Amino acid sequence: MTGGAFRNSSNLLGRKRELDELKEQIDNLKSTASKAAALDAQLKTSRDQLRQDIDKYNSELQQAYLKKNTLTMSIDQVKEKLAEMSAKIGRNKANVQKSVEKPDITKGKGKEESL
C-alpha cells in the first residue's frame, strides 16, 4: 500500500476535479479581493475629500466667528457712543429749558433801566 503507482484512476480524476474547484475558488477570491481593493481606494479618496471639506468649512466657520465678534464689538461701541450722545443731548435740552424758563436777570434789568 505504500509507494507505487495508483491502481485506481478514479482517485486521480477526483483530485483533478478538486484542484479545478480550488483554482476556481482562488480565481473568485482574487476577483473579490481586487474589487475590495478598488472599493477601498475609492473610499480612501472619498474620505480624504471629506476631510478637506471639513477643514475648509472649519476655516470658514472660524472666519465667520471672527467677523461676528468684530461686528458685535462695533455694535457695542456704537451703543456706547449713542448713550453718551443721548446723555449730552439730554443735558443740553435741560440747559436750554432752564434758560427759557429763567430769563436772564441782567438782560431784564438792562431793559428796564434803558426805558
Structural notes for this entry:
The protein is mostly helical and 115 residues long. Helices cover 90% and strands 0% of the residues.
Strand-pairing-aware structural class:
mainly alpha
Number of strands: 0
* Total of helices: 2
- Beta-strand portion reads under 5%
CA gyration radius, whole angstroms = 49 Å
Mean pLDDT across the residues is 87
Q: Report the principal-axis shape.
A: rod-shaped
State the low-pLDDT regions, or none: none
Topology:
Blueprint: H1 9-101, H2 105-114
Structure summary:
The protein has 115 residues and is an all-alpha fold.
Could you list some keywords that capture this structure?
about 120 residues; mainly alpha; 2 helices; rod-shaped
